[in-house]
């Protein structure tokens, strides 16, 4: 083999070697990348439910349930009378202690608790002939039909209301505790210390209270 053919053969072999090496080192196939998940939109937190205005008084009522536990045969519902509110407001609340739901009503206070008839309770009294409202824990007693129709007796369980039964402090209906009266006068009329409600809601109120439950009246501010 002469020099020219030898050189041609050598170059041909070198090219084949380079081609084989390049093919052997071919880039690996590109694998598909997983898709980036779309961001999940942030759901705003539900706003906290505001506490009812009577929440602190309800805490007192719960404490009274524990204090006078044996006095009550039924502990599923309680009545709250919030005398911090004016008489034009729905300030009697019958609260289901399981669900937290409440039914609210107009209710009077005694004329001795508001001599100037301002619509606000200014003071309590447990004294006979005071014509004033008294505060504390009451046990609902039997219904009866009297001067004001269907009514419910109450037994006072605390030193500040233990004359309630003898004073005939009861729950009864009265025309001066209606929405029409409040619309005309801007306030309810006054009782002689009883928890008077509108006549048309007496069956509902007495039905929800029933006998053997707690009715708690009070005022967080000094009275």
UniProtKB/TrEMBL annotation:
Q: Which domain of life is it from?
A: Bacteria
Q: Which UniProt keywords apply?
A: Signal
Statement: the UniProt record of this protein carries the keyword Signal: yes
Q: Is the S-adenosyl-L-methionine keyword given for this protein?
A: no
Question: Which N-terminal stretch is annotated as signal sequence?
Answer: 1-26
Q: Which InterPro entries match?
A: YkuD_2
- Which protein, by its recorded name, is this? Murein L,D-transpeptidase catalytic domain family protein
């Amino acid at each position: 083999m002469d020099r020219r053919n030898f050189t041609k053969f050598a170059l041909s072999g070198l090219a084949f070697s380079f081609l084989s090496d390049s093919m052997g080192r071919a880039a690996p196939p590109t694998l598909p990348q997983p898709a980036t998940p779309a961001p999940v939109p942030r759901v705003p937190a539900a706003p906290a439910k505001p506490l009812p205005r009577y929440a602190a008084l309800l805490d007192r009522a719960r404490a009274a349930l524990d204090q006078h536990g044996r006095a009550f045969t039924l502990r599923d519902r309680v009545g709250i009378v919030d005398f911090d509110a004016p008489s034009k407001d729905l300030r009697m609340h019958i609260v289901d202690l399981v669900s937290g739901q409440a039914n609210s009503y107009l209710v009077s206070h005694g004329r001795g608790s508001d001599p100037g008839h301002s619509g606000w309770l200014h003071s309590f009294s447990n004294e006979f002939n005071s014509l004033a409202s008294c505060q504390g824990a009451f046990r609902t007693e039997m219904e009866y039909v009297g001067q004001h129709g269907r009514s419910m007796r109450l037994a006072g369980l605390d030193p500040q209301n233990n004359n309630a039964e003898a004073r005939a402090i009861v729950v009864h209906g009265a025309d001066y505790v209606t929405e029409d009266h409040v619309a005309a006068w801007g306030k309810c009329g006054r009782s002689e210390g009883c928890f008077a409600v509108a006549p048309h809601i007496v069956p509902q109120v007495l039905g929800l209270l029933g006998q053997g439950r707690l009715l708690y009246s009070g005022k967080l501010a000094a009275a």
